[in-house]
Recover the amino acids of this structure.
C-alpha cells in the first residue's frame, strides 16, 4: 500500500507542476515578467535564479504557484511587463492555461493506457430479465446506446451512469443495423430486481457490448471522449452537491484521495496483479487531472475561474464607462475567498482523517 500512496503523492506533484507550468509558459510567451515559479508550498528545499525568475522546489507537495509581476495589482504602473498591463486576451490565455494543461495531462494518460488496446467495448442491450416487461419497450437486443435523455453515451460506463440517473421514462437514441433509432418516452421503470454484477441490475436490462476496432484514429477519438465523460461526471457531482444530494462527508481532499489511491492499488493488486493495479491508479490520476481542470475554471474568487470572471467584468465595465476597475478590489476579494477556500480544505482534511480512522 505504501507504494501506491507514494504514487498518489507523486501524482499530485505532477498535476500541480503541469498546472503551474501552463501559467508559466504562457506568461513567458506573452511577455509577462515571472518573479518565481514554485512547485510545492512552505519553505524552499531547492531554489535557483535564472534570469529574472526564481525556480523553487518547496517542502509540501500540496500546491505551487507562478508569481507574476503585478498580478495582484501591485506595481502595475511601474513595469510595462506586469500582468495588469497586458491586454484582455493575454491575461485570459495565461489564466486558462493551467486548466488546459491539466486536461491535456489527463488526455495523454488515457491515450498511453490505450496503447495495448485491440478493441473498445461499446454499450449495447445484451438481453432482458424476466419480470420487467421490457420486451415491449421498443428496445431490441443488440441496440447500441448513443444517447440517454439527451446525454451522449461515449464509454461503456456512461450507460450505467446515465440510466441510474434517469427517471422511469427515458428518451433514448440507439444504433440498430447501422441506423439511428429514436425511442422517446421509453418506459423503463426503476426497480432493482435480480442479482449479480451491477450491470445486470440496470432496470432489467443486461448490458452487452459491441466491439470497435482500436485503430489509431479510434484511440484518439475514444480517449478524448473519455475525458469529456470525466468532465460530465464532475459537473453532475457539482449539481448533486448544490442540490444537497451529497454532503460534506462525501467530499475528499488530497488526504482522502491519497488514501483512496492506496486502497485501490492494494485491493486491485491482490485480485488482478500489480500491472492492472497501476493501470487503475493512473486511470484515476487522469480523472483527477480533468477534475482539477474543471474545478479551477469555476467562477469562484481565489480560483483561476474567479479571476477570469473578474477579467470579463472589468472588460465590460471598461466598455461601458471607459474607466478601469482598481485591481486592488479584485485582490481583496480573491484574498478573502482564498482564506475561505483554505478553511474549507482544512475542514475536508479533518473529515478525511476521521473517515480513515473510523
Amino acid at each position: 500500500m505504501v507504494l501506491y500512496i507514494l504514487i498518489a503523492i507523486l501524482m499530485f506533484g505532477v498535476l500541480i507542476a503541469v498546472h503551474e507550468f501552463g501559467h508559466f509558459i504562457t506568461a513567458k510567451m506573452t511577455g509577462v515578467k515571472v518573479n518565481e515559479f514554485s512547485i510545492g508550498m512552505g519553505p524552499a528545499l531547492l531554489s535557483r535564479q535564472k534570469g529574472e525568475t526564481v525556480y523553487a522546489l518547496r517542502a509540501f507537495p500540496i500546491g505551487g504557484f507562478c508569481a507574476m509581476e503585478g498580478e495582484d495589482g501591485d506595481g502595475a504602473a511601474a513595469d510595462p511587463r506586469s500582468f495588469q498591463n497586458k491586454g484582455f486576451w493575454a491575461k485570459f490565455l495565461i489564466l486558462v492555461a493551467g486548466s488546459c494543461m491539466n486536461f491535456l495531462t489527463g488526455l495523454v494518460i488515457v491515450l498511453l493506457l490505450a496503447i495495448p488496446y485491440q478493441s473498445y467495448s461499446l454499450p449495447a442491450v445484451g438481453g432482458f430479465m424476466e419480470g420487467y416487461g421490457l420486451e415491449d419497450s421498443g428496445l431490441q437486443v443488440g441496440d447500441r446506446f448513443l444517447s440517454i435523455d439527451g446525454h451522449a453515451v461515449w464509454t461503456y460506463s456512461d450507460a450505467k451512469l446515465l440510466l441510474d440517473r434517469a427517471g422511469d421514462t427515458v428518451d433514448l437514441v440507439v444504433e440498430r443495423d447501422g441506423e439511428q433509432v429514436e425511442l422517446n418516452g421509453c418506459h423503463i421503470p426503476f426497480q432493482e430486481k435480480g442479482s449479480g454484477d451491477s450491470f445486470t441490475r440496470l432496470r432489467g436490462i443486461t448490458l452487452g457490448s459491441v466491439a470497435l476496432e482500436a485503430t489509431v484514429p479510434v484511440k484518439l477519438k475514444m480517449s478524448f471522449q473519455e475525458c469529456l465523460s470525466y468532465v460530465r461526471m464532475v459537473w453532475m457531482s457539482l449539481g448533486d452537491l448544490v442540490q444537497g444530494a451529497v454532503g460534506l462527508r462525501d467530499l475528499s481532499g488530497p488526504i482522502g484521495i491519497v488514501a483512496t489511491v492506496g486502497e485501490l492499488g492494494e485491493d486491485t493488486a491482490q485480485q488482478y496483479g500489480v500491472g492492472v493495479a497501476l493501470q487503475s491508479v493512473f486511470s484515476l490520476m487522469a480523472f483527477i487531472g480533468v477534475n482539477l481542470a474543471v474545478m479551477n475554471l469555476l467562477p469562484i474568487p481565489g480560483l483561476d475561474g474567479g479571476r477570469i470572471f473578474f477579467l470579463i467584468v472589468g472588460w465590460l465595465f471598461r466598455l461601458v464607462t471607459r474607466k478601469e476597475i482598481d485591481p486592488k478590489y479584485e485582490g481583496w476579494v480573491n484574498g478573502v475567498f482564498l482564506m475561505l477556500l483554505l478553511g474549507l480544505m482544512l475542514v475536508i482534511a479533518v473529515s478525511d482523517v476521521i473517515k480513515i480512522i473510523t
About this structure: The chain is about 50% helix and 20% strand. Confidence is low (pLDDT under 50) at residues 193-201. The longest helix spans residues 327-357. Residues 49 and 55 are 6 Å apart (CA to CA).
